[in-house]
Each structure stands twice: as C-alpha cells, then as structure tokens.
Amino acid sequence: MAMNMRSSGKGIRWIPSIFSGLVVQLAGTPVLAAQQISFRLGELQRSVQVADLSEFERTGTVNPGISFIIDPLKQDDREALRFALGHPFPATSIEVANFLQTPMGGVVVRQFAKLSEQPAAEVVPAISGALILGASTGNGLRLIDVLEQYPLEDLIIGVPAGYDLTATTRP
Question: What share of residues in the chain are helix, strand, coil (percent, to 5)?
C-alpha cells in the first residue's frame, strides 16, 4: 500500500507544472489592455486608438482616428514615427524585469509615469508590466507592443508634462 501512495504521489507532481505553464501563458495575454491614448491639455482632450497606431506602424495606413496627428507631419516625420513605434530594442522580458529592479530602472519608470495624469500608484506598476509583457512578444522591446500591453484601458498623457519631459531630455 505504501508503494501505491508513492507512485500516486509521483503522478500528481505534474499538476504544479501544468498550473505554472497556464499562469505563464495567461500572464502573456492581457485581460485588459490600453484601448486608447488620450492627450489632455486642461479641459481639452483628444484620443488615439491603440489599434489605429498599430495599423499605422504595420502598414502606414492613416485611419481617421489618428489623422489629426499624422496629417500635419512631413513625410520624414511620419516615417520617424513609424520607426519609433516599431523599432525593436533588443531585450527579453527577463532583461527588462531585471532592469526595472535596479535604481535606474525605477527612475526611468517614474519619469514616464510623470507624463500620465493618473495616480502614480496605478501608472508605475502598469508601465512596468507593459514593458515586461511588451518584451515577451519575441520581437524585442517595441513601443507599439508596450502600448498594446498597457494594462489600463486609457493611457492619459498630460500635454504640459510631455513638454516638460522633452525639455529636460534635450541636450
């Protein structure tokens, strides 16, 4: 009888492995992902659908929902935007996660969180998760993947904060 218990115990050892595999698979599939990016200036707000940005990055197609951003751009600037959305930074999700655990990684995420008009307590973990999941696509770390993996429905960017950040990062 002791022999049967041991063999049945060995047979159950695969259950945690299956559970772990399911958790990893489900973690890579966002339950809720950013639907839009909203740019806010005081009471004024314009939103861009992430799906429209994704299509623009893939095909160059300018849907009506993003034309207010794309149409005023010169051709070189359009190409630069497509490049910025889709260019892969060579990093794996593990490398990104390890970087986010460093003091510099924390500073980077907090700086990007300052762009948002949402509470930092929500945005910092959301950005961190989106960066890790974005890098897990196998395409490297691409901005469009990060936007698609952002776990809050709306990413609200404060236009004045965006200007402040670009002013501090220019040489």
Answer: 60, 10, 25
